[in-house]
């Protein structure tokens, strides 16, 4: 893994890894919708182009936020799973969603209701629930903990 960080600032370093337009959306899809295949990601409403998706998946893998492996019962298809490092982005994604709901809802009439997604409860419990749900789904998919 190549370390091309712009500075020693922790925020800048994080943005060097996940600060592009697509990386956090891929992690969001993995955490909230348990997407795991290239085809799954390509159906997201944001419409990521296949070349960009491929590039971002490789980037996230190089930076150890996801792993690529084969399904136990289908050795042809790649699946992508979050690592612990990737799962730990859940609180950040939750905070961004809450900030957006508070500050951008008036500008985006199409914004989804966060209450319907479960955000009406305590945010730390919500985030922990998302992480546990993701881990349980991964365990069912690959039969082991990541």
TrEMBL record:
<dbReference type="Pfam" id="PF01638">
    <property type="entry name" value="HxlR"/>
</dbReference>
<dbReference type="InterPro" id="IPR036390">
    <property type="entry name" value="WH_DNA-bd_sf"/>
</dbReference>
<keyword id="KW-0805">Transcription regulation</keyword>
<keyword id="KW-0804">Transcription</keyword>
<dbReference type="GO" id="GO:0003677">
    <property type="term" value="F:DNA binding"/>
</dbReference>
<dbReference type="InterPro" id="IPR002577">
    <property type="entry name" value="HTH_HxlR"/>
</dbReference>
<protein>
    <submittedName>
        <fullName>Transcriptional regulator</fullName>
    </submittedName>
</protein>
<keyword id="KW-0238">DNA-binding</keyword>
<feature type="domain" description="HTH hxlR-type">
    <location>
        <begin position="9"/>
        <end position="108"/>
    </location>
</feature>
<dbReference type="InterPro" id="IPR036388">
    <property type="entry name" value="WH-like_DNA-bd_sf"/>
</dbReference>
């Amino acid at each position: 893994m190549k370390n091309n960080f712009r500075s020693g600032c922790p925020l800048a370093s994080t943005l060097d890894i996940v600060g592009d337009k697509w990386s956090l959306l891929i992690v969001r899809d993995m955490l909230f919708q348990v997407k795991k295949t290239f085809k799954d990601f390509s159906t997201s409403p944001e419409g990521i182009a296949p070349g960009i998706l491929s590039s971002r998946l490789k980037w996230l893998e190089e930076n150890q936020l996801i792993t690529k492996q084969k399904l136990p019962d289908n050795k042809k298809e790649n699946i992508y799973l979050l690592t612990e490092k990737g799962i730990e982005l859940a609180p950040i994604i939750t905070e961004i969603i809450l900030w957006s709901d508070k500050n951008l809802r008036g500008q985006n009439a199409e914004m989804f209701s966060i209450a319907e997604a479960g955000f009406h409860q305590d945010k730390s419990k919500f985030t922990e629930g998302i992480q546990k749900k993701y881990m349980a789904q991964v365990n069912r998919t690959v039969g082991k903990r990541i």
